[in-house]
Amino acid sequence: MKVAVLKGGSSLERTVSLRSGARVEDALARLGHEVLPIDVGADLVERLQTERPDVAFVALHGRGGEDGTVQELLELVGVPYTASRPGACIRCMDKVVAKHALRDAGIPTPDFYAFSQAAFEELGAAKALPAIEERLDFPIVVKPAGQGSALGIKFASRAADVPNALVSAFSYDAKVLLERYVPGRDLAVSVIEGPDGPQALPVVEAIPTEEDFYDFESRYEIGRTRFVCPADLSPELAERAQELALATWRVLGCSGFARVDLMTDGEDLTVLEANAIPGLTDTSLLPLAAEAAGIGFDEFVTRVLDLAVQRTSV
Amino acid sequence: MTIDETPGGRPPSSAHEIERYGGLFAKRTRGMTSSAMRDMMAVTARPEVISLATGLPDTTTFPAEDFAWLMARVAVDSSAAALQYGPTDGLDDVRRCIVEVMAAEGTEVEIDDIMVTTGGQQVIDLVCRAFLDPGDVVVAEAPTYPGAVPCFNSFQADVVQIAMDEHGMRMDVLEETLARLKREGRRPKFIYTIPNFQNPGGVTMSLERRRALVKIAAEQELVILEDNPYGLLRYEGEPLPTLYSLDGGRYVIYLGTFSKILSAGLRLGWTAAPKPILERMNLGKQAADLCSSPLNQYFVAAYFQHRDWRTYLTQLRTIYRRRRDVMLAALEEYFPAEATFTRPQGGLFLWATLPDYLDTTDLLARALREHVAFVPGRAAYLDGRGGSEMRLNFSGVNEDEIREGVRRIGKVIAEQVALYGTLTGQKPAPKRGADVVEFRRREAS
C-alpha cells in the first residue's frame, strides 16, 4: 500500500511528532509498504490530492494534527486515516470538553472549573476566583485546555500565583482550567483497538528520578523519569485502571489507538486526560505498553492501518 | 537534527530502546536531555516565522562571486594541502591573520600563543575539558551565553552567575561571591565573561570594571575566559581594551572567531592563552577533532591575502547598526511601558525585561501563533531565573521583519499585561510613547 505519514507541522510538539513519524516510516518500510513522508504545511491538501495515498498514518501531535483539523481534511479529501475521527479528536484535545464528558458519565476526574479568556475580559470572571480557590484548595493546577504536552501547566500554591498561572495558560489556548491537585502516582494506560474491540494494554507508571515535584517538564524526559511496565500495582487496581481507560475511550468515542493518563492515590483512581494521538517514539509509553503485551511496533502499525482501511470500506 | 532526516538509517529494533540504552548513558548527559522549551524552539525555524531568536550573522551580505573565486584559488594553489589533515594548532598563515584581527582591537599577540579552533564554541568546550571535574565552580554573568549552558552542564559544572548592570558584571557581587566560595573552600576554575556587547545582555563591561576584573584574577590567581566574538562589531562609542591585553596574557584565555566578521559556516575560531593552558587545550583538541578543517583555513588565508577583510567588516557594521536602530525604535513604539530593554553599542543582541508576572517561555508559545520568535530568558540561566526576560537578535533578519517582529511581540505582551490587569484589577502603565507625544506637542505649540 502507499502510506502517507503525516508528521511535523507547526504545533509545539513538532519535534516529538517528527520522531513518531520517523519510527512509523521505518516500520512501514520493513512491512513492505510504499512510504510517503509528509511534513504537514500549506501544501498538505494539494499533496494528498496529487499523490493519492491509499491510507494516511497520522503521526501528528498537538494543535492542528491531534485536534480534528487534519482528520476533517482527510475525510474531505477521501483518504482513509489512522486513529480517532474528528469528533473524538476534538473531545480528547480539549481537556474541558473531555472532563465534562467524563464527569457526566460518572468517571472520576479531579474537580475543576474552566474559563475562556472572554469570561475574564467580558463577564468579570475574576470575581469568581476566590470562590474557586476556596473550593479546590491549594495547590491548584492551572492548565491550558488544548495543549498536549506539559507546556503551560502551572501549580499555584497560593492565591497570588493564580493570575500569573492563568496568563501563562492563556498563552496556549483561549480556554483554561483550574483543577484540584491530586497527589499520587502517575499512570498511563494505552488502548489499542483489535478485532474484538478495544484492548487496554498493561499499565505504565512514570516515576521521577529526581525531586522535581512541581516540574511537569521533567516527567517524560529520558533520564529524569523512569518508566515501569507493567506498573507495580495490585492486580485489582491495575484492572480498575484498565477498565477506567476503556470507559474513557468509549465516552470520548476513540478509535484505533489512544492513551489515557491517570493518577492513583492509594486505592483511588482518577482520569486526568486522554490523548488521541499519543507519542510513538522510541521513548514513548504506548509502544512500551504494547511491547509488554507482546505486540511489537510493526504489528501495532499493521493493526492500526488495517482498521483505518476497514473503517472506510464499511 | 531529528532522526527523521535519516530514514531507514537505523537497524530495525523491537525492544524498547530507552530501556536498552538508559542504563548505559553517562551521568553527565543527564543535563543534556531535550526539554519542552527546546522542542518549542524547533518551531521557530519554520519558514513562516520571523525569528528574532537566532544568533545568526547575515551571510547573504557576502558576495557569492568572491566566495567562488577564493575557493577556486584554494583549489589551484593548495589543493593537496587543503584536502589533507593539518596541524592541531592551525595553519601559520591563518594564525598570522588572527594576529592582524586581534591587533585591530589593540591586542598584541604572538602566533605561538594562538590555536585555531572549530568555531569559538570549541574554545569553551576545550577550556571545560582542561579545567573541570564534576562539581567544580565556574563563575559566569547573569544572564550568560545560552550556548555555553549545555557545555557547562555536560561537564557537570556548578555555575555561579553574577548580576550585571549597564557597566557589565558587577564587581561588588563578584567579590562577595568569591569571598563566600573561599569560605566554603571552593576555588572557581574560571570566570567566563563576554565583555563586549554581551550575549545575551547587550551590555559592555566598562574600562574600570575590566581593570578591576583583571586585578582580582591576578590577586586571587583565577583564570578568566574572555569570549569576544563581537568586539569588532561596534556601532558607537570608543573601543575598550580586551581583558587579554590588560592582563598581558597571564590569567586570561582569549576566545575569538571568524563567525561574525567573515562566516559562521567556516566554523573557525581561535584561542590565545598562556602556554601551559594552550598545551592542555591542544591535547584536548587532538582528542576532539585532531585539527580544524584545513580547507576552510586555506579559504581564510586566501581571503585575507586577496580581499580587504576590513571593508566587509565596515559593511557589516553599517547593516547591523541600522538594524539595531530599527529594533530600538520599534521597541519604543510597540513594547508596553512595563517592559525595559538594553541599548547595546554593538554586537547582535539586546535583552528585554518584562513585568515579573509574565513568563517568556509561555509567551513564546503565544508569539509563535503570531509567527514570531525570541529566546526565552531561562535559556541564559542555569538556576531557573530569567523567567520574565527575553533575548532579541537584530542581525539575522531585515529591517522590515525586525519592525514587524517587534510589533507582533509587543502586541502579545500588551495583551497579556491587559489580561493580568483584568485578573488582578491592576491598571496597565500608560503607553511608553505618551511622554514623547506630550513633548512633541509642546514643541509644536
From TrEMBL, chain A:
<dbReference type="GO" id="GO:0008716">
    <property type="term" value="F:D-alanine-D-alanine ligase activity"/>
</dbReference>
<feature type="binding site">
    <location>
        <position position="275"/>
    </location>
    <ligand>
        <name>Mg(2+) 2</name>
    </ligand>
</feature>
<dbReference type="Pfam" id="PF07478">
    <property type="entry name" value="Dala_Dala_lig_C"/>
</dbReference>
<keyword id="KW-0961">Cell wall biogenesis/degradation</keyword>
<feature type="binding site">
    <location>
        <position position="273"/>
    </location>
    <ligand>
        <name>Mg(2+) 1</name>
    </ligand>
</feature>
<keyword id="KW-0963">Cytoplasm</keyword>
<comment type="pathway">
    <text>Cell wall biogenesis; peptidoglycan biosynthesis.</text>
</comment>
<dbReference type="GO" id="GO:0009252">
    <property type="term" value="P:peptidoglycan biosynthetic process"/>
</dbReference>
<keyword id="KW-0436">Ligase</keyword>
<feature type="binding site">
    <location>
        <position position="261"/>
    </location>
    <ligand>
        <name>Mg(2+) 1</name>
    </ligand>
</feature>
<keyword id="KW-0547">Nucleotide-binding</keyword>
<protein>
    <recommendedName>
        <fullName>D-alanine--D-alanine ligase</fullName>
        <ecNumber>6.3.2.4</ecNumber>
    </recommendedName>
</protein>
<keyword id="KW-0464">Manganese</keyword>
<dbReference type="InterPro" id="IPR011127">
    <property type="entry name" value="Dala_Dala_lig_N"/>
</dbReference>
<dbReference type="GO" id="GO:0046872">
    <property type="term" value="F:metal ion binding"/>
</dbReference>
<dbReference type="GO" id="GO:0005524">
    <property type="term" value="F:ATP binding"/>
</dbReference>
<keyword id="KW-0460">Magnesium</keyword>
<keyword id="KW-0479">Metal-binding</keyword>
<dbReference type="GO" id="GO:0005737">
    <property type="term" value="C:cytoplasm"/>
</dbReference>
<dbReference type="InterPro" id="IPR000291">
    <property type="entry name" value="D-Ala_lig_Van_CS"/>
</dbReference>
<feature type="binding site">
    <location>
        <position position="273"/>
    </location>
    <ligand>
        <name>Mg(2+) 2</name>
    </ligand>
</feature>
<keyword id="KW-0133">Cell shape</keyword>
From TrEMBL, chain B:
<dbReference type="InterPro" id="IPR050859">
    <property type="entry name" value="Class-I_PLP-dep_aminotransf"/>
</dbReference>
<keyword id="KW-0032">Aminotransferase</keyword>
<keyword id="KW-0663">Pyridoxal phosphate</keyword>
<dbReference type="GO" id="GO:1901605">
    <property type="term" value="P:alpha-amino acid metabolic process"/>
</dbReference>
<comment type="subunit">
    <text>Homodimer.</text>
</comment>
<dbReference type="InterPro" id="IPR004839">
    <property type="entry name" value="Aminotransferase_I/II_large"/>
</dbReference>
<comment type="similarity">
    <text>Belongs to the class-I pyridoxal-phosphate-dependent aminotransferase family.</text>
</comment>
<keyword id="KW-0808">Transferase</keyword>
<feature type="domain" description="Aminotransferase class I/classII large">
    <location>
        <begin position="48"/>
        <end position="409"/>
    </location>
</feature>
<dbReference type="InterPro" id="IPR015424">
    <property type="entry name" value="PyrdxlP-dep_Trfase"/>
</dbReference>
<protein>
    <submittedName>
        <fullName>PLP-dependent aminotransferase family protein</fullName>
    </submittedName>
</protein>
<dbReference type="InterPro" id="IPR015421">
    <property type="entry name" value="PyrdxlP-dep_Trfase_major"/>
</dbReference>
<dbReference type="Pfam" id="PF00155">
    <property type="entry name" value="Aminotran_1_2"/>
</dbReference>
<dbReference type="GO" id="GO:0030170">
    <property type="term" value="F:pyridoxal phosphate binding"/>
</dbReference>
<dbReference type="GO" id="GO:0008483">
    <property type="term" value="F:transaminase activity"/>
</dbReference>
<dbReference type="InterPro" id="IPR015422">
    <property type="entry name" value="PyrdxlP-dep_Trfase_small"/>
</dbReference>
